[in-house]
C-alpha cells in the first residue's frame, strides 16, 4: 500500500517523539580500539571538512575507518533550488548503492537543523516527497519543476533518500538486495555518521528523521539504529548523532492493528458519519474477524511468507480496497468530498 500524498502542510498529522539530548543505551557491541583523535595513534581519518570542496563534474568519495564496508560518493549539483547549494550522491555498501539528494537551508545552513526524509511504499522514491510534497521545487504541470516557497529547507538542511535498493535511482550490482528494514536501518545510520564525520559543521546539530506511509515502519527502526550506533561512536571517541525527533505522517506502523481501524473509520461514526453504504460495511464486518485471525497466525505468531502474503492480500481486498475504489470522499480528509467541496 503506497500512499503518495497527504500531509503537505498539516504538521498536526505528525506524531513526534523528541529528545534534544541523548544518553545512549549501554550495549555489548562495543568498540574496543583506541579512540580516534587528531593527534592520537589512530589518527587514520582526514575529513573533507567543508561541502565547498566538492566538484560539479565528478564525485568525491568519503569514507571512515569505523565503517569499512561503506563509502559515500557525492558531488555538487545544479538542481531544483537555485537559491541554495544542492548535492547528490550515492551511499555505496559494497555492491549496493543508495541514491540521495541534499539541500542546504535557505535560512542559515551553518546553524539550522538537519532533516532526513524517506517516503514509504515500500518501494516509493523520495522524489515524490521532493517534487510533490515538502521539497524545494514542485512539479505541478507538464512544464516542469517550479520553486516551492514553503519547502522544509526554508529553515533546515534536508536529505531525501531513495531506499531500499531498486527504488528511484538506487541500484545494485550482481543481483544484490536488501532483505529487511532492519538491514536498511544499518545502512542509513552508517551513512549519517560518515556524512557528519566528514562535514564537521553538522556535528551536534539537531537531527530529525521524517517520513510518511510505510515510513511508519522504517523510521522507528532507522532512529533506533542511529540511537544504538551512538553508543559505539562515543566509545570510539567519535561524535554521536544528536537525534532530536522522529516525525511520521500518515504512518503505517502496525498494519495488523490498523485493519479494524479501517472499518471503524469508514463504517461507524468514530470520526464522521459513515462513508460507505450498509452492504459494503456488512461485508467488511463479516471479513474482519477472519482477517485478524489469519494475519495473527501467519504473520505474527509464526511468520510464513506465503500464508502471510495471502492474508495481507485478502485483508487489503476486503478491508482497504473499498476505500480506494469508492471515491465518495477525499481519502485524506473525510470532511471533504472527492473533488474538494466540504461536507456538512
Automatic annotation (TrEMBL):
UniProtKB keywords: Carboxypeptidase, Glycoprotein, Hydrolase, Protease, Signal
Keyword Protein transport: no
Pfam families assigned to the protein according to its UniProt record, in alphabetical order: Peptidase_S10
Signal sequence interval, chain numbering: 1-19
Keyword Cell inner membrane found: no
Broad enzyme group: hydrolase
Coiled-coil region list: none
EC number(s) on file: 3.4.16.-
Top-rank taxon: Eukaryota
Entry similarity comment: Belongs to the peptidase S10 family.
Protein name: Carboxypeptidase
Amino acid at each position: 500500500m503506497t500512499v503518495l500524498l497527504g500531509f503537505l502542510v498539516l504538521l498536526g498529522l505528525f506524531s513526534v517523539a523528541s529528545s534534544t539530548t541523548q544518553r545512549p543505551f549501554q550495549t555489548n557491541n562495543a568498540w574496543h580500539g583506541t579512540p580516534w583523535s587528531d593527534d592520537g595513534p589512530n589518527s587514520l581519518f582526514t575529513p573533507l571538512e567543508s561541502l565547498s570542496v566538492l566538484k560539479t563534474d565528478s564525485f568525491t568519495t568519503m569514507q571512515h575507518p569505523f565503517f569499512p564496508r561503506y563509502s559515500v560518493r557525492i558531488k555538487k549539483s545544479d538542481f531544483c533550488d537555485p537559491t541554495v547549494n544542492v548535492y547528490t550522491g550515492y551511499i555505496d555498501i559494497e555492491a549496493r548503492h543508495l541514491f540521495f539528494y541534499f539541500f542546504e537551508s535557505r535560512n542559515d545552513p551553518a546553524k539550522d537543523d538537519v532533516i532526513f526524509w524517506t517516503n514509504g511504499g515500500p518501494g516509493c522514491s523520495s522524489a515524490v516527497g521532493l517534487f510533490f510534497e515538502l521539497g524545494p521545487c514542485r512539479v505541478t504541470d507538464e512544464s516542469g519543476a517550479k520553486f516551492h516557497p514553503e519547502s522544509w529547507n526554508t529553515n533546515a538542511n534536508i536529505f531525501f533518500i531513495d531506499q531500499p535498493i531498486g527504488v528511484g535511482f538506487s541500484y545494485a550490482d550482481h543481483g544484490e538486495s536488501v532483505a529487511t528494514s532492519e538491514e536498511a536501518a544499518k545502512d542509513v545510520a552508517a551513512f549519517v555518521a560518515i556524512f557528519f564525520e566528514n562535514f564537521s559543521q553538522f556535528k551536534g546539530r539537531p537531527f530529525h528523521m521524517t517520513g510518511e506511509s510505510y515510513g511508519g515502519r522504517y523510521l522507528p527502526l532507522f532512529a533506533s539504529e542511529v540511537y544504538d550506533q551512538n553508543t559505539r561512536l562515543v566509545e570510539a571517541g567519535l561524535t554521536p548523532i544528536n537525534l532530536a525527533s522522529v516525525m511520521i505522517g500518515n504512518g503505517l506502523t502496525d498494519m495488523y492493528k490498523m485493519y479494524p481501524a479501517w472499518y471503524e473509520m469508514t463504517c461507524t461514526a468514530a470520526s464522521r458519519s459513515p462513508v460507505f453504504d450498509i452492504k459494503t460495511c456488512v461485508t467488511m464486518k463479516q471479513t474482519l474477524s477472519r482477517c485478524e485471525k489469519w494475519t495473527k497466525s501467519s504473520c505474527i505468531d509464526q511468520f510464513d511468507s506465503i500464508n502471510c502474503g495471502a492474508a495481507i492480500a485478502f485483508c487489503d481486498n476486503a478491508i482497504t480496497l473499498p476505500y480506494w475504489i469508492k471515491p465518495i470522499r477525499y481519502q485524506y480528509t473525510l470532511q471533504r468530498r472527492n473533488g474538494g467541496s466540504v461536507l456538512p
